[in-house]
Amino acid sequence: MTSSQLREGGSRVQGGCDAYIYPVIYITKTYISTQVETHSKMGSSLWTFLIWLSLVSVSFAAIPRKPVDVPFGRNYVPTWAFDHIKYFNGGSEIQLHLDKYTGTGFQSKGSYLFGHFSMYIKMVPGDSAGTVTAFYLSSQNAEHDEIDFEFLGNRTGQPYILQTNVFTGGKGDREQRIYLWFDPTQAYHRYSILWNLYLIIFYVDDVPIRVFKNSNDLGVKFPFNQPMKIYNSLWNADDWATRGGLDKTDWSKAPFIASYKGFHIDGCEASVNAKFCDTQGKRWWDQPEFRDLDAAQWQRLKWVRQKYTIYNYCSDRKRYPQQPPECIRDRDI
């Protein structure tokens, strides 16, 4: 992706999620309070109001269950450069180190066909240009499926860029890039993927930043029959990661360190040859309330789109003169 593409969408807009959420909650409470007073004055039945209130409550977000934090060794194993992984607090927290010789990474012990996967990550601080911190799911064959979080480093004082992508049948090119509304190097934040037969949701903390729905009926492949492992890595990608490769990694700042904890996996474990999940429809992340975003979640996603999105493949007419068919369904136009 070129630096001109990266700059599409304008500059970073200041503000935070709390500044957005608070008025919505306040207005909702005020509206409910007003309805109570109005119904009381009109003498409407209590049952009428309770039915109305139940309908209002349905519109609130169905957020994923709280992740269960477990030590690294419960779900993961190192994959390369073992000496570049440092362990703390009995393995409940680890650090990945990148130097001019090598990066490092780890992967899940099992393969999964659908589920909820999350990780608390604190990004490389300071001058991180050229580095990529990755958290992703991927199958293991030529026409692979993949669900990506990639955090692209930047020069000191410049914001991190979060890139997401979805590969299906070996085809990707569905990049979206956003700025975050906080400094991801100062504290841990939770990054999560919810994947079921109906959609994929990318979350930053509890904020949905992207939805990729099952549009198989539109001729768009969806990952549904290839079990995936979860991977995390820190590596050098200064040929493309920062301003299209213009900013190179400054090795005098090495080692570059990314920190991880949480290591939550709640998925349908399967062998790599499995074609379906034997608990289909029985897990919490597979229930009807997780087959789409609700009104409140769509509003949060809209907030991310309007204030923090800097590149979206759905609006890139140079790459896609004809809009990809899934973009309308995913509300990415």
Automatic annotation (TrEMBL):
GO biological process assignments: cell wall biogenesis; cell wall organization; xyloglucan metabolic process
Broadest EC class assigned to this enzyme: transferase
Keywords: Apoplast, Cell wall, Cell wall biogenesis/degradation, Disulfide bond, Glycoprotein, Glycosidase, Hydrolase, Manganese, Secreted, Signal, Transferase
Domain spans labelled GH16: 58-260
Stated role: Catalyzes xyloglucan endohydrolysis (XEH) and/or endotransglycosylation (XET). Cleaves and religates xyloglucan polymers, an essential constituent of the primary cell wall, and thereby participates in cell wall construction of growing tissues.
EC number: 2.4.1.207
Location (main, coarse): secreted
GO cellular component: apoplast
InterPro entries: Beta-glucanase-like, Beta-glucanase/XTH, ConA-like_dom_sf, GH16_AS, XET_C, XTH
PTMs per UniProt: Contains at least one intrachain disulfide bond essential for its enzymatic activity.
Protein name from the UniProt record: Xyloglucan endotransglucosylase/hydrolase
Organism of origin: Crotalaria pallida
Similarity comment text for this entry: Belongs to the glycosyl hydrolase 16 family.
Active-site positions on this chain: 146, 150
A molecular-function term among this protein's GO annotations: hydrolase activity, hydrolyzing O-glycosyl compounds
Pfam family membership, one: XET_C
Subcellular location: Secreted, Cell wall; Secreted, Extracellular space, Apoplast
